[in-house]
Fold FkbM family methyltransferase.
Amino acid sequence: MDIVRANDLLVLGDEELKLYAPVEHEANFQYQEIFEHECYDQFSLSERPTIVDVGANIGLFTVFAKRQWPSASILAFEPVPRTADYLCRNIELHGLTGVRVVREAIGERVEDTSFVHYPNMPGNSTRYPEDKELQVSVVRQRHPDWDVTAQYEPEYLTVPVRRLESHLSGLAHIDLMKVDVEGAELEVLRGIADDQWDRIDNVVMEVQDLHGRMAEIRELLEARGFRCEIQPSPMVYPEILTYLLLAQRGA
């Protein structure tokens, strides 16, 4: 496990949620997105749902989901070693049970691949750093006083990539699949086996609509029997073209 600061236990929001986090401003951003705007709480789930969290980061969604559905079983994926360490620490901090952490990226092919980690913006870490150029440009225009270059200073890693089908094979049913993978959304979906789709009831994804990505994702999900709704991502500048896609299995 990576060495982390001794004073990285933060208190977030009015309800004083405690969480270990490497970067305070990003943890506060995620707290507002998940707990205040409730962008992922748009589905009615069973009392004991099975939730798959692809791109779990430091665990704010995991903590939120266990508060909403205390008996939920959660399968959480996070490929960046240091970020996964924080995820595990936060699961322990909150005494969460029924959560399994997998330290892998999820994609279309089984491989080891290069991954860019931003230590000062770890939630933006990605397999596709070229897609961050628009975001960096918008942030630089909006905040000319910030040292944006330092915020996006990269570290280069090699991470394992596995198809999601290998992890879903033991799950009889998935009530909700949440995907936040910074440009790899299509690869996640394409890594699900044909005979596994009927087990999935709901999907929520954050998608930056570059390269026609949103249209491809929507077409894939609708072909699998989902009704799709697209909303602006509540905490992201509109010029960055980032949206929430909510997909529910049709009647």
